[in-house]
Amino acid sequence: GTHRTAVLNLTKTLIQHQVPFGVLTRKDLGRLSDYPVIVLSNLVVMRAEETAALRDYVARGGRLFVSGSCGLIDENGVVRPDFPLGDVLGVELEGEARERITYVTPTDLAPALFAPYDVQRPVTLNDKTLLVRPRPGAPTRTLATVTRPWTDPDGYAYAALLTDPPAAQTTRHPALLENTFGAGRTLYAAGVVETWDHASRRGVLVALLRHLHGRPFSVEAQAHPAVEIVTYEQPE
To answer: Strand, coil or helix: what is 194?
Structure first.
């Protein structure tokens, strides 16, 4: 599914940029504070104890990156009407874009994060995106908005023979929304941006994670993407 694809592509992106990372499961809910940044890649099914642990993690100063339909289904298969972490992310669900190709258009709040992309050249997302809005009263910042293609790729009309170019106007819907919750910060992506697989798009994803982290990673390297660095920690 999209969750597995996103996770595998995210790990490839982190390896190519020599970003240290690990993998968490429900068994690690008691040690979330060991990680300065946690990523939930379109984790559609979430248990109540998971959302509670993550809410506490952010409130105590953690950084959380979330994408897609995070937690919209509970452990019993029941569809939730909104994100269970909506208060943490500062976001509310409106619906889903009908197009299977959308674009992430930077706002003027943090344009450097999206280089070489900008308003005239938004980042392509070869996937549908959710339509969300900032949660009233939350201290959110919209770093990017959703731009639809000129025409629906599944329709009969088309704007170009081989491509689906972005429309001239962006929408009001956030594509990337930053929020402060307690002592922590979050970044919510309405589309599953972890599936970005072009080198330049991977660079944008890493820039967003660096921005959320807010300081140098524990291990960094200026190396070719083919160089993989594995680190171990020995308590003694």
So the answer is: helix
70-90 pLDDT per residue, tens: 999 999 999 999 999 999 999
Per-residue pLDDT of 118-139, as tens digits, reads: 999 999 999 889 999 999 999 9
Task: Identify residue 214 by its one-letter amino acid code.
Answer: G
**Are 68 and 2 spatial neighbours (Cβ–Cβ below 8 Å)?**
yes
Helix/strand/coil for 3? helix
From residue 178, give the alpha-carbon distance in Å to each of 2, 20, 22, 53.
23, 23, 23, 20
Tokens of 167: 């429309």
In SS3 terms, 49-101 reads as: HHHHHHHHHHHCCCEEEEECCCCCECCCCCECCCCCCHHHHCEEEEEECCCCC
One-letter amino acid for residue 31 of the chain: R
Cα of first residue to Cα of last residue in the chain, in angstroms, is 41
Q: Measured in whole angstroms, how far is the alpha carbon of residue 72 from the centre of its chain? A: 16
Give φ, ψ of 104 to 5 degrees.
-105, 110
Local structure of 15: helix, strand or coil? helix
Asked if 29 and 46 count as a contact pair (C-beta separation under 8 A), the reply is: no
Is this model's pTM higher than 0.90 or not? yes
Rounded Cα distance, 145 and 122, in Å: 10
In DSSP notation, 206-229 reads HHHHHHHH-S--SS-----TT---
pLDDT above 70 (res 155): no
Mean pLDDT of the chain: 93
Residue 163 has pLDDT above 80, yes or no: no
